[in-house]
């Protein structure tokens, strides 16, 4: 038994890295649905079907607990999966709840009624599918009142990052921050709601200004996972760690090795 980490591509490796650092004894199986990425421009039905297929594969690989490191999958598919698809003896957790809990200063799994919180104006940067789902606003409304959210779909940024064109990625981030500011002149917090945006964190912070608190998922998700495993130790277990991809294992291994700067070998899912 191991903990599964799912992403449409390799961006979720930042979550894996943070989780491994926080929980060095837990074996993780990472699955990248490289054959079907990007998810961010797909329909909700499509994202649901692809995410269910990928999570099934991780269940087969012996994972009882799967983290959706992909924001788009968390936003467009998680609730529907939890309501109608996840077997009773398995758990699937997403990335939005840990972010929102951190932002609203709640402990993991605190289900008390929504209350006033320190942040008032939140900027959400994410893929078009995540923005369209309104999942962030829905999860936030369960926990906080009086918070205003403006979402900005950051078209082009992930493609520029994937192409290694950081100059274009930076210019696009700045123009998306400008667009957000026209809707919300003075955000007090910003959520980087996509696996790829932590790579642009300093550009976001610079464009937003030092007063805006930027929340980025990897470490927050790792903390939340540690909390969860503390309460459900049977969910971690022992098992074999590994890397699976629906794409070409050689190509994906090369890119992952570059990305993490250590040898990573993906096998075919
Ligand atoms: C992932 C993989 C890609 C491969 C080739 C071109 C563009 C890509 C973009 C992404 C981003 C990813 C997605 O699937 O849209 C973002 C998603 N993991 C998220 O919302 O966190």
TrEMBL record:
It catalyses: L-glutamate = D-glutamate. One of its GO terms (molecular function) is glutamate racemase activity. The keyword Isomerase applies. Gene3D superfamilies: 3.40.50.1860. It comes from the Bacteria. Its EC number is 5.1.1.3. InterPro entries: Asp/Glu/hydantoin_racemase, Asp/Glu_race, Asp/Glu_racemase_AS_1, Glu_race. The active site is at residues 70, 194. SUPFAM superfamilies: Aspartate/glutamate racemase. One of its GO terms (biological process) is regulation of cell shape. Keywords: Cell shape, Cell wall biogenesis/degradation, Isomerase, Peptidoglycan synthesis. Pathway: Cell wall biogenesis; peptidoglycan biosynthesis. Substrate binds at residues 7-8, 39-40, 71-72, 195-196. The keyword Cell wall biogenesis/degradation applies. Provides the (R)-glutamate required for cell wall biosynthesis. Belongs to the aspartate/glutamate racemases family. This is Glutamate racemase.
